Amino acid sequence: MARLPIYLRALTTLAEEAVTTVSSEELASAAGVNSAKLRKDLSYLGSYGTRGVGYDVDYLVYQVSRELGLTQDWPVVIVGLGHLGHALANYGGFASRGFAIRALVDADAATVGTEIAGLRVRHLDGLEEEVRKHGIAIGVIATPAPVAQEICERLVAAGVSSILNFAPVVLVVPDEVEVRKVDMSIELQILAFHEQRKLGPERHGRLNDAVAELADAVST
Amino acid sequence: MARLPIYLRALTTLAEEAVTTVSSEELASAAGVNSAKLRKDLSYLGSYGTRGVGYDVDYLVYQVSRELGLTQDWPVVIVGLGHLGHALANYGGFASRGFAIRALVDADAATVGTEIAGLRVRHLDGLEEEVRKHGIAIGVIATPAPVAQEICERLVAAGVSSILNFAPVVLVVPDEVEVRKVDMSIELQILAFHEQRKLGPERHGRLNDAVAELADAVST
DNA sequence: AGGCGCTTGTGAACGAACGCACAAAGTGAG
DNA sequence: CTCACTTTGTGCGTTCGTTCACAAGCGCCT
Ligand SMILES: NC(=O)c1ccc[n+]([C@@H]2O[C@H](COP(=O)([O-])OP(=O)(O)OC[C@H]3O[C@@H](n4cnc5c(N)ncnc54)[C@H](O)[C@@H]3O)[C@@H](O)[C@H]2O)c1
Ligand SMILES: NC(=O)c1ccc[n+]([C@@H]2O[C@H](COP(=O)([O-])OP(=O)(O)OC[C@H]3O[C@@H](n4cnc5c(N)ncnc54)[C@H](O)[C@@H]3O)[C@@H](O)[C@H]2O)c1
User: Which of A67, A87, A107 is the last residue before a domain boundary?
Assistant: First the structure.
């Protein structure tokens, strides 16, 4: 389930506050979900709660971490160390959540050889060697969009089977490779869509009209 | 619909390649979705296709842009100009997709006053004034997690009604405010989950066991 | 020891979204 | 003009996920 990481974050926050026990209701509101949904999600991992009491925070942290495969550290390579790649490489939040950035790769001669967050940037030529050397299964693509697909293919060929893509393109990969994309422009556009709708439906698209009609129908 | 921005991107790419007409099948595969789903999505905006031919690319770009509210530029404020805030402020992909970054705000004395991407960073004190001055409806939070909720409340109080949050916290907002979050750690954790499953179910969590049993049941 | 109150785990109903498959509609060739 | 071909728009069955609601289980208080 894609919600486990959210629960895990809420749980670790609680653990830091020295909370030992939490009810599904509390945890659900901290994670921003329905409590029945949370209980059902957790029940897929097994019965780790105590009726009448709730869940033991530390124990649940462990179980969820195990389920997510975070009891070990995953080595990661970042390809493309422009603005975004720099930010990612310097971000401490990955290391503390089960990931270890092990290799940085870029094509730009000016960037290659520089040190970022204690790691030396290697030239693109060494991509495959870095992946093999560190046994890297997870690759991050932070290159310009036009080269993302090519980088993706090289990562896959080298043995990477999970990719986090920041470039605004749809990557084509074999079935066994998992891709997730983070696209900030799309997020903003979705916000703009809702924002526009708030301004009043009359001056806008047909989708809004349809929604307005629906609202009318409901209110009568 | 949350898929419209993806279609829009595929369409603009096609437009740049001087493609004038596209079938639902082609556009769907470029966007990575089922063609029936794409046609149904587009039909919500109206009937802009021609049977036997397909969709006119330029016309569809315009219709989708209008639906998303991208015929105008949306002013945006970024709060927190650390690594990530810098990357965002310098990113050209926003301006070309209907957004104009109009204000940068940070609490750090060393950052305030510096110029990033042609814009001067203003102190947090001026947040409300900047929002009002530019009529900003969309705010981006790139501050450390502990202050994100507080910043969020100030943005909302100042009149911002859509927020893009990069801090790893669940923001609490009034119903009429739209929040979207981008959480890179969560994306990585989801990848780790799938990665772990590939390694073989025997040494892992109960969720995997359940899936394995299911697979057994199906194959017999 | 027994009962009371609280919280979990889940069966079942509901609803939304997906995708198949086809009729309707347009194009172009003969 | 007609026919064969292409592609849209959509009705409908199906699947997936969410939520309600409640029985089962646990701890605590008496
Ligand atoms: N910066 C942001 O805030 C932001 C936001 C959304 C999306 N993105 C996307 O993320 C990607 C990176 O953005 P950025 O702002 O860091 O861009 P950037 O131009 O600052 O950095 C790109 C980096 O990739 C390197 N590169 C180019 N070709 C390469 C190749 N073939 N192999 C390896 N490295 C190569 C460049 O040398 C450069 O260091 C882009 O696709 C962009 O669209 C960025
Ligand atoms: N850098 C990444 O790649 C990355 C990845 C995932 C998530 N994030 C999240 O994004 C956020 C920012 O990350 P970062 O790497 O840029 O951190 P950072 O520490 O580099 O930058 C944080 C910035 O926020 C400013 N700030 C602090 N308190 C403030 C306040 N009250 N008001 C306004 N500004 C304030 C600081 O002065 C600093 O400039 C964090 O919440 C982080 O968890 C970052």
Answer: A67
